[in-house]
Amino acid sequence: RRKSISENPTMVFIKPTKSRAYFKRYQVNFRRRRAGKTDYRARIRLINQDKNKYGTPKYRFVVQFTNKDIITQIVSASIAGDMILTLAYAHELPRYGLDVGLTNYSLDAGVHRKYVYGGHVAAYMRKLIEDELEKYHTHFSEYIKKGIEGWHRRTV
């Protein structure tokens, strides 16, 4: 039996201990929240559909970066779990004509069309062909192997 404060006036502070009822009612967070992988408040804002679009799926574009690859997915949420409708990997790009330049930095959308299609690279290639042919072969060996010429870069 515990003594109350009135019985023992020298004891001023009693440390509150968690009772058995506290531990009975304790509820742990979701596993992905405990692991720090999912922010459920942000997730609900992403997947909640408007009320007037009842039953219509809401799609989102997911990009995942791995050490060797970049994965892009189109995902819709359902009660059973997220449904991945389609996905693409960065290593698939050579199948669709993008053979070189896969390790470059991202492209700024506001850059002029000449630079987007590699016009400055084509001009540099022409200059090297005229002036220093050996340097051209070393700098653009991957382009030469693939049969890509700088002035035909726009077809890629």
UniProtKB/TrEMBL annotation:
The keyword Ribonucleoprotein applies. The keyword Amino-acid biosynthesis does not apply. GO terms for biological process: ribosomal large subunit assembly; translation. Gene3D superfamilies: 3.30.420.100. Keywords: Ribonucleoprotein, Ribosomal protein. It comes from the Eukaryota. GO terms for molecular function: 5S rRNA binding; structural constituent of ribosome. InterPro entries: Rbsml_uL18_euk_arch (IPR005485). PANTHER family: LARGE RIBOSOMAL SUBUNIT PROTEIN UL18 (PTHR23410:SF12), RIBOSOMAL PROTEIN L5-RELATED (PTHR23410). Belongs to the universal ribosomal protein uL18 family. This is 60S ribosomal protein L5. It comes from Coptis chinensis.
